[in-house]
Amino acid sequence: MAYIDDQGTQKANLKYIRNSMNEPMLTREHELELARRWRTDGDEKALHEMVTSYTRLVVAMASKFRNYGLPLGDLIQEGNIGLMQAAARFEPEREIRFSTYATWWIRSAMQDYVLRNWSIVRTGTTAAQKSLFFNLRRLRAKIESTNEAEGLGMDGRASIAKELKVNIKDVEEMEGRLGGSDHSLNAKIGEDGDEEWQNFLADERPNPEDVVIGMKDAQTRSKWLQEALGELSPREQTIIRERHLGQDTVTLEDLGKELGVSKERIRQLEQRAMSKLRDSISKHVTSVDDLLMTM
User: Fold this and answer.
1) Largest CB tally within 10 Å, which of 19, 79, 96, 220?
2) 106: how many CB neighbours lie within 10 A of its CB?
3) What is the mean pLDDT of the chain?
4) Of 101, 93, 119, residue with least CA distance to 40
5) How far apart (Å, rounded) are the C-alpha atoms in residues 36 and 47?
6) Residue 264: CA count within 13 A, CB half-sphere
7) pTM surpassing 0.70?
8) In terms of pLDDT, which residue wins out, 227 or 286?
9) 236: region left, alpha or beta (phi > 0 left; psi from -120 to 50 alpha)
């Protein structure tokens, strides 16, 4: 559903649009002069003149994004941010028109705003997904206009996926997103219903009993491990702690230097220590699966 501004906001937007369209156009020479004055001397008056002269670009671009149901004033303000970013990065020595350079920044700022605010679910996190989001409707309309059947169909989705270099699954998922809308979990089901949507969401978290059992089992396994470690020699304990119980695994070579033996000797000691641990812990378990969970 499109956003509708109140009367006061509509008047303010209209006034801004008129002022933008009435700003004088800059010649190529004067534009480059303003850009040099801003870049070289930090002349804010030159910056202001250059930016305000191209707010018409922002207004024109904002009109292309109105179909996403967001406030026109917000789109314009986001576009103005992109325009300012373009002015800050513009290099007059490249001798290209500022309007050409600024158009990309304005469009990018508005696209980011649309993606952030079109839905509470994050949309378009990669460049390919962004391209799909902003081009799917246009390509879908183009395909449907040449076909008698309604909807895209698999051939249409495949065509879009090929053109935008994405998977068909991505096209299907984006089609579903664009065809739906956000709903509150507190919304009632049916016109006269008393139940809310959230009442039918399954809680997949473990229940309190499973949590307590898991904690108890973890404590028991930890006790078994400590008892098994106590049966190892000091050097074997060091190897096991450094190789398996620390946040960062120490390499065989570094551990060999620390203990004054070769890397191969550390490997042998590690294998022997692990065998001792398994033998010790296996006394407390009844199946191999329990042993693997413990280790």
Assistant:
1) 79
2) 27
3) 80
4) 93
5) 10
6) 0
7) no
8) 227
9) alpha
